[in-house]
TrEMBL record:
This is Peptidoglycan-binding protein. It comes from the Bacteria. SUPFAM superfamilies: PGBD-like (SSF47090). Pfam families: PG_binding_1. Residues 22-83 form the Peptidoglycan binding-like domain.
Length: 269
């Protein structure tokens, strides 16, 4: 795989407990907060400040209780592996189908099922281990991670077949760069054509939202199904409002007649 930044998110240098501080504590606090999405009835959310105080200790004990472990409040390698299991599962998943388009959908679904999401802190949006994994080690307000999510899934599908996703697109975090490469290679079909010929849309292809007044592409995702004027998608960095700078991976429905949606073909991936 090309998108290997996730491996850094799985590293843990040792035991942390009350009184500990530093990077490992930050990682523990991040994963406690992210696991709150999986276990919403359990009090896991705590301040992400790198200081292992009584609040973090209690959150750890609550997480241990989920798995019926002894509530020590101490994070070992084994417990950290449980904390970051969603990311480990998603990034190391293998498809069980031969068709690469179906593999793309299957792998994207794994990320959805593992509740891939960002963290929002006092420093802004687009933070946390999922974002850094999608964005080659980067996070923060500037890193709108929809492209990183798409390319990660395509990377997984291609690499397990001995190929690279860069054979059909550049390695980038920019919607504009992705779209312009599609224009140059003939892979991008503009919205006007897609609206007239929706049958051109195929599951596994990538949709790109574009400002209708200019060639400014600002969001993308993976098309999972299409029916007439409607497409179903899996996309990162969106939300219930369909934002291009949201919080998580969501399954959505979009109307190709109401939004300016271009389509990037993954044929030959």
């Amino acid at each position: 795989m090309i998108k290997t930044a996730y491996q850094q998110e799985l590293l843990f240098t040792g035991v942390v407990k009350k009184g500990s501080q530093g990077t490992d504590v930050v990682r523990v606090q991040e994963w406690l907060c992210l696991n709150a999405l999986r276990y919403p009835k359990i009090a896991l959310i705590t301040t992400i400040d790198g200081q292992f105080g009584p609040a973090t200790e209690l959150a750890v004990k609550n997480f241990q209780a989920v798995f019926k472990l002894t509530k020590t409040g101490i994070v070992t390698d084994a417990l950290f592996a449980r904390l970051n299991a969603p990311l480990s599962v998603a990034f190391q998943a293998k498809s069980t189908v031969k068709d690469i388009r179906k593999a793309v959908l299957q792998l994207a679904g794994v990320h959805l099922n593992q509740r891939s999401a960002e963290l929002q802190t006092d420093e802004g949006q687009n933070r946390g281990p999922w974002v850094r994994s999608y964005c080659d080690g980067n996070d923060g307000p500037l890193f709108k991670w929809c492209v990183g999510f798409v390319q990660t899934v395509l990377d997984q599908a291609a690499s397990e077949r001995g190929r690279t996703f860069t054979a059909i697109m550049p390695h980038t975090l920019s919607c504009d760069v992705m779209a312009r490469s599609g224009i140059e290679t003939g892979r991008l079909t503009k919205s006007a054509v897609v609206r007239k010929k929706p049958k051109l849309i195929r599951p596994g292809d990538v949709f790109l939202l574009r400002n209708p007044d200019n060639d400014d592409w600002f969001h993308m995702g993976i098309i999972t199904a299409s029916a007439g004027d409607v497409i179903e998608t899996l996309e990162g960095n969106t939300d219930l409002k369909g934002s291009s700078n949201g919080t998580a991976v969501f399954a959505r429905v979009r109307n190709i007649q109401k939004a300016t949606i271009d389509v990037f073909s993954i044929e030959g991936l």
